[in-house]
Amino acid sequence: MNLANRITLARIFLVPIIMFFLLINLDLPPVQFKEFSITYNQIVAALIFIIAASTDSLDGYIARSRKMVTNLGKLLDPLADKLLVSAVLVSLVEMGKVDAWIVIVIISREFAVTGLRQIALLEGKVMAAGKWGKIKTATQITAIIALLINNFPFEFIHIPFATIASWVMAGATIWSGVDYFAKNKELLNMANS
C-alpha cells in the first residue's frame, strides 16, 4: 500500500477518535472566557478534525505528484471524506449544534452523487470533482470547525458565524449536487436504456 493510501486510511481511523471526544463526557470542567464556554473534548475533537480534513488535500497531492494514483485510492478517498463529514455532522446533531434537516440534506446529496458515480463507472466513465464539489467541501469543513469550537472567536462580537456557515454549507451542498446531475444528465439517460 502506497503512502497516499495510508494517509487516506489514517483519515478513516481518525473518525471514531473524533466521535469519542465529541460524544463521551470526560467530566472535565469547561474552558471559560466570560460568557464563552467550550469543553476540552470539543477542543481535542476540533484539532483532530482539522488534521483529518487537511489530509484530504495531502493524500491527493502525493498521489498525483508521485504518480501513485490507484483504484484503491479512488475508492478510499471519497469514502474517507464522506465518513469524516457525515460522522461529525451526525455527532453535532446529537449535541444540538446543527439542525438535523441540514445534515439529512448533506448526507442525501452524498448518496445521490455516489449513485451517479456508480452509474458512470458502469458506463466506463470517471466523474472528476468539479469546482462546486470543491467549494462544497471547503464550506463543510469551515462550518464544522465553527460548530465544533462554539463559534469562536465570533461569539465575542455576537456574530452567528457558525449558523451562517451551516446555511452556506447546506446551500453549497445542494448546488454542487444539482451541478453534478446537470453536467452528467446523459448518464441517467444511458442508465434508463
UniProtKB/TrEMBL annotation:
Question: What is the membrane topology listed in the Swiss-Prot or TrEMBL record?
Answer: Multi-pass membrane protein
Q: Which UniProt keywords apply?
A: Lipid biosynthesis, Lipid metabolism, Membrane, Phospholipid biosynthesis, Phospholipid metabolism, Transferase, Transmembrane, Transmembrane helix
Q: Which residues cross the membrane?
A: 7-26, 38-62, 83-107, 157-182
Q: Which domain of life is it from?
A: Bacteria
Q: In which pathway does it act?
A: Lipid metabolism; Phospholipid metabolism; phosphatidylglycerol biosynthesis; phosphatidylglycerol from CDP-diacylglycerol: step 1/2
Catalytic activity entry: a CDP-1,2-diacyl-sn-glycerol + sn-glycerol 3-phosphate = a 1,2-diacyl-sn-glycero-3-phospho-(1'-sn-glycero-3'-phosphate) + CMP + H(+)
Subcellular localization, per the record?
Answer: Membrane
* InterPro entries assigned: CDP-alcohol_PTase-I (IPR050324), CDP-OH_P_trans (IPR000462), CDP-OH_PTrfase_TM_dom (IPR043130), CDP_ALCOHOL_P_TRANSF_CS (IPR048254), Phosphatidylglycerol_P_synth (IPR004570)
- Please tell me which top-level EC class this enzyme sits in: transferase
Which family does this protein fall into? Answer: Belongs to the CDP-alcohol phosphatidyltransferase class-I family.
> What's this protein's function?
This protein catalyzes the committed step to the synthesis of the acidic phospholipids.
Q: Specify the protein name.
A: CDP-diacylglycerol--glycerol-3-phosphate 3-phosphatidyltransferase
